[in-house]
Amino acid sequence: MKNYNYDIIKMLFASLDDSWRIEKYYLEDSKACPKCHETFQKMKQDIDGHIEMLKGELVRHAKEGNFE
What we know:
The protein is mainly alpha-helical. 84% of the residues lie in helices and 0% in strands. It has helices spanning 3-29, 34-63. Helix 1 packs antiparallel against helix 2 (34-63). The chain is elongated and about 50 Å long. It starts with a helix and ends in a 5-residue tail after the last helix. 7% of the residues are buried.
C-alpha cells in the first residue's frame, strides 16, 4: 500500500474514533460546563468535516486507480 493511502486510512480511523468518543462520552460529560460543551460540539463539527474530506480522497484514489 502506498504511504499516502495508508496515511489517509490511518487518519480516517483516528478521526472516526475521536468523533465517536466525543458523541458517546464527552458531550454528555461536558454538559456541566457550558463552555466545555460548546468546545466539544465545535470539535466534533470540525472532525466530522475532516472525515468527509478523507473519505472523499479515498473515493478519488479508488476511482483513479491509485488505491494500491
